[in-house]
Specification:
Chain A: Keywords: Fatty acid metabolism, Ligase, Lipid metabolism. The complex is a heterodimer. Chain A is α/β, with parallel strands linked by helices. Chain A is 42% helix and 20% strand. In chain A, the strands form 7 sheets. In chain A, strands 4-3-5-6-7 form a 5-stranded parallel sheet, with helices on both faces. A 5-stranded mixed sheet of chain A has the order 12-13-14-15-16. Chain A has a 5-stranded mixed sheet with strand order 24-25-26-28-27, with helices on both faces. The two termini of chain A are 41 Å apart. The two termini of chain B are 36 Å apart. The chains are: A alpha/beta, B alpha/beta. Chains A and B meet through loops of A and helix 5 and helix 7 of B.
Chain lengths: 720, 272
């Protein structure tokens, strides 16, 4: 692992990779965006022209080497181009979270000292203008979407297209300068600066060099055999390191096409239209998809419902074996033989599918005659009649039938038909959810990473995928576990420094290059896979010295579709308690089915039957927590359902939707007290921030429930 | 100010031009009922003109007169400096006047896209056979119209419901689709009949923003009827107040708000 030196193939910057891609794949699609109902496409050649024009336009405005340029906006090709253009000029792009309110943005803009800000639309420009009286170094604001911008004072405001035109017009003068600046980029020059979401305290600017980004991207592209023909959907916040690695790093290294959705609301439709082959999503997205599927299956007819249940049950054990896509080691056109085999399989599948539908429809008819009102309860679907086949073939054809009837159409509806590799990370994913997707034949894997590592620390190789581990160290990454259980790593992707924060840099990264993740975990001896327990600093002790790992319990709670978020308290106390956020989609649907009227989240959250349901979930979790002798102290004795959804706008979550434990404990201190003083209900008032930044107050009286606690299995042998 | 016809620029930088439509001594009778009694006012190019008044004041009838659905019993409608003869509503629509309705009047089984497409009907000229065969002019026209419709969908931010049947949409979105359909006709004069009735605060804010944007981006003149005083006072350049078929006030919002007749009509005054 060389700390210095250059890339072996001279491609040591993103602009250099871009030039290579233009040479190799000039007329292949590089970017797509749905605009006016049509997927607009740019080839590598066209994208290169646009990027160079932007870069020259920025040079014309006086962009200097080494300065920071903030980019704020949703995923659109022009914003990615602006970032690469900034790199071409020798400057450093700093993508920001577009849904941050002006206050949050002010801190980052001030900290990075940007003179240039690239904004997506009027909304972002407004925010920048709002903070401009405090942050005087902002000189030029560029915007991409012209709508509503006509009346603004344009002395320091420019439309990105105008800048491009300016750049093109002056290309004779600026071309040599641009070439010179591109040639100056080295392996060690800064590629991008990304701000951490800041679970605690102010966000920190993580400086990542070209070496970090490109070497990590190369290793991960090889790890998963990603090719030039992959399709990805870029829909995650641009300020997040994952999006930078996937949509710029890996896209540039492998040369695949980045697709941008039409608007955030159309993401699901666009996903389906594109059919990505490589997909990344936080567990939340997979949960939402699954919840929607389940809700819609409840509405489906009895026959469909029964078939769905039967085949999903069947796939649980067989999906891993029969469903996974073939892992491609080399690219080749399918031979005639393989095509024929594929056609035969599919034809058999269709034949058995027809047989299955007919058989079950007839049986369903008779069940309905006998139980006209409760047919769904009594009707169990049956698989195809395969008595003539030996056992392994039976399973195989059973799965093919399911593929035709259930898995295929379902994957198609979700837009996941063509997935070769899908990753989830950021939070733990529920085992049921994980297994659901895998049994459908979607190669969903987990990885563990962070901004400081350019994402990859560990990831799961194909064929060794489990829901409770995060995989083996990624290629080139060394991982060690400290004595207190904290995970340390060292890799080519390890960040250079925190911008203007030598103190934090020194406390995170030691001179030998080992970085503390802040997470506690251990390696499984049998498999060599890493398991993460919790944030190292969240793991604490209870009053009697028992281990307290809130995340562990919260994750178990969040695996119930009814529960969106949970916050567990108990450090330094004699027992654990919890705040619960219900999932409005899932619980709302349940309420509708059970004739429970509600007007708002608050009203539904306070409904006694909802409380009963949640109590049942909490007690179930308590039983499962009790099984683990180390953590049996973390059972929840009392809980309440919060009267508002935890929100990043109120500072309760980070922009990547991680719980900010301390802030919540402080903000709802009265509720925490009530959880411990034995009262049955409490009146509270909370300040909320609306999306436009205005403040309001909500008042509520919350019920507090006691939950049954299970006795610890291994009798109290817990070391203090 | 209201007597001058000189173009002027408003505080927020919009240009208000000359008179686009003038209504002269309009009276509308249904048998013995006098719905509108001798009302005159003008609508100027580029402005947002509000018509307000208590229930039954004749506001919607006035809008129907403007859109050509009712022919006034007496009085004249002057549009673009010419007296408008009695004509059918679709002819009026072809002149560049589009409207939305108080009760949503969309084709509820059709998708958002198709509904907005119907607004382009005045821009289609291909014959029946050409349309049926989907050849030549029909195809070219459809492409051009679809492009215009997509721009409106983008403008109103309703991409996510493009293919959804409008019957399944919530009320606020249906109102937005209806606005989209009216916009598709590329009108010079847009009539909005209670665009914000029955909406919650957030939907009202959205709708207000779209109305202002339409006026700003396309320079469309807008006449709107609305009950929410806050919205009317914020949005409109000039306000006509009606009560029992008569005009009791006309002028900028501040002026109208101070008018004693208007206060009486809205709040009632004790007669002692």
């Amino acid at each position: 692992m060389a700390l210095h030196g250059a890339s072996t193939d001279e491609l040591c910057s993103i602009p250099a990779l871009l030039a290579r891609n233009v040479r190799l794949y000039g007329d292949k699609p590089a970017y797509r965006e749905k605009e006016f109902g049509i997927w607009q496409c740019w080839t590598w050649g066209q994208a290169n022209d646009e990027i160079r024009a932007i870069a020259m336009g920025m040079l014309a405005l006086g962009l200097e080497r080494g300065e920071h340029v903030a980019v704020i906006g949703r995923n659109r090709p022009a914003h990615y181009w602006a970032m690469v253009a900034v790199q071409m000029c020798g400057a450093i792009p700093v993508p920001l979270y577009q849904d941050a309110v002006a206050e949050e943005m002010a801190y980052v803009l001030d900290h990075c000292g940007a003179r240039f800000v690239v904004c997506g639309d009027q909304e972002q420009v407004d925010k920048v203008i709002e903070v401009q009286d405090r942050i005087h170094h902002i000189e030029h604001v560029l915007y991409n979407d012209k709508r509503g911008m006509r009346k603004y004072d344009h002395t320091h405001l420019n439309w990105l297209k105008d800048i491009e035109e300016e750049g093109r017009a002056a290309h004779a003068r600026l071309e040599p300068e641009l070439e010179a600046r591109i040639a100056e980029l080295t392996w060690e020059s800064t590629c991008v600066m990304l701000y951490t979401s800041g679970t605690t305290g102010k966000p920190k600017g993580v400086v990542l060099s070209n070496r970090n980004i490109i070497e990590t991207a190369k290793a991960s592209v090889e790890f998963d055999h990603l090719g030039q023909d992959e399709e990805v959907l870029a829909y995650l916040p641009m300020a997040w390191v994952g999006d930078f690695i996937f949509s710029i790093g890996q896209a540039m290294v492998a040369g695949f096409c980045v697709n941008c959705p039409e608007s955030p609301d159309t993401m699901m439709t666009d996903l389906r239209e594109i059919g990505p082959t490589y997909f990344f999503a936080p567990p939340r997205i997979f949960e939402t998809m699954l919840t929607n599927v389940m809700i819609r299956m409840e509405d489906a007819g009895d026959l469909k419902h029964a078939l769905f249940k039967h085949f999903m049950e069947f796939a649980k054990d067989t999906g891993e074996e029969y469903g996974m896509p073939r892992y491609r080691t080399k690219r080749s056109r399918p031979t005639l033989r393989r095509r024929l085999r594929w056609m035969y399989r599919y034809a058999m599948g269709i034949g058995f599918a027809i047989e299955t539908i007919v058989e079950n429809a007839v049986r369903g008819f008779f069940v309905r005659l006998r139980h006209p009102l409760e047919a769904r309860k009594y009707f169990r679907a049956r698989g195809p009649l395969l008595n003539l086949y030996p056992q392994p073939l039976r399973d195989y054809f059973n799965y093919r039938t399911g593929e035709v009837l259930v898995y295929g159409p379902l994957k198609n509806t979700l837009g996941l038909s063509r997935i070769r590799v899908a990753y989830t990370a950021g939070e733990a994913i529920g085992p049921e959810i994980f297994d659901f997707y895998r049994s459908l034949g979607i190669n969903l894997k987990q990885l563990y990473g962070q901004t400081e590592a350019s994402v990859f620390i560990t990831q799961q190789p194909d064929g060794q995928v489990r829901s409770d581990t995060v995989g083996v160290p990624s290629p080139g990454v060394e991982v060690k576990i400290a004595e207190n259980g904290e995970v340390f790593y060292r890799s080519p992707g390890t960040f250079v420094e925190y911008y203007k924060n030598a103190e934090s840099t020194a406390s995170t990264k030691d001179p030998e290059g080992w970085v503390a993740t802040g997470d506690a975990g251990f390696f499984e001896e049998a498999t060599g896979h890493l398991r993460i327990i919790d944030r190292a600093k969240d793991v604490g002790k209870m009053a009697d010295g028992r281990l307290f790992a809130p995340k562990y319990v919260e994750n178990k709670l969040k695996f119930y579709p009814d529960i969106l978020e949970a916050v567990v308290f108990g450090a330094g106390r004699d027992r654990c308690t919890a705040f619960i956020n219900i999932d409005l989609t899932a619980v709302g649907n349940w309420a509708e089915r059970n004739n429970i009227a509600y007007a708002s989240y608050q009203e539904l959250a306070g409904h006694p039957r909802v409380l009963d349901t949640i109590q049942a979930h909490v007690e179930e979790v308590n039983r499962s927590v009790a099984d683990d002798p180390m953590l049996s102290g973390c059972q929840i004795h009392r809980f309440l359902i919060l009267h508002k959804e935890l929100d990043a706008d109120d500072g309760e979550l980070t922009r990547t939707r991680k719980v900010r434990r301390n802030i919540i404990a402080e903000k709802f201190a009265d509720l925490v007290t009530a959880l411990y003083d034995g009262s049955d209900s409490i009146y509270t008032e909370t300040e909320v921030t609306y999306e436009d930044g205005r403040k309001g107050r909500i008042k509520a009286t919350l019920q507090i429930r006691d939950a049954a606690v299970a006795p610890a299995k291994a009798s109290g042998q817990v070391a203090a | 100010m209201k007597d001058t016809v000189e173009p002027y620029v408003t505080e927020d930088g919009r240009t208000i031009g000359g008179v686009l439509m003038e209504l002269k001594h309009i009276t509308l009778k249904f048998g013995g009922v006098v719905a509108i009694k001798d009302i005159s006012f003008d609508i100027r190019e580029g402005e947002i003109r509000a018509i307000i008044g208590p229930n039954g004041a004749g506001k919607s009838s006035m809008l129907n007169v403007i859109s050509g659905f009712y022919t006034p019993t007496e009085g004249e409608v002057w549009f673009e400096g010419k007296k408008r003869p009695q004509m059918r509503p679709y002819k009026v629509a072809q002149q560049g006047i589009a409207r939305t309705f108080q009760n949503i009047a969309l084709f509820s089984g059709m998708s958002t896209l198709d509904n907005i497409m119907t607004g382009r009907i005045t821009h289609m000229s291909a014959g029946l056979f050409s349309q049926a065969a989907w050849w030549g002019k029909a195809e070219r026209e459809e492409t051009a119209n679809r492009e215009a419709v997509e721009k409106i969908i983008d403008f109103l931010e309703i991409q996510h419901i493009r293919k959804t049947p409008v019957g399944r949409l919530p009320y606020g979105l249906q109102k937005r689709v209806e606005l989209g359909r009216a916009l598709a006709a590329e009108p010079r004069l847009l009539l909005l009949d209670e665009p914000m009735a029955g909406m919650n605060v957030e939907e009202k804010e959205d709708m207000s923003r779209f109305i202002l944007d339409v006026n700003d981006e396309f320079g469309t003149t807008i006449v709107l009827i609305e009950h929410d005083m806050g919205v009317v006072m914020d949005l409109s350049d000039r306000v006509v107040v009606m009560d029992y078929g008569k005009k009791i006030g006309d002028g900028p919002p501040e002026e109208v708000r101070a008018n004693p007749d208007v206060i009486e009509a809205y709040l009632g005054v004790s007669h002692d």
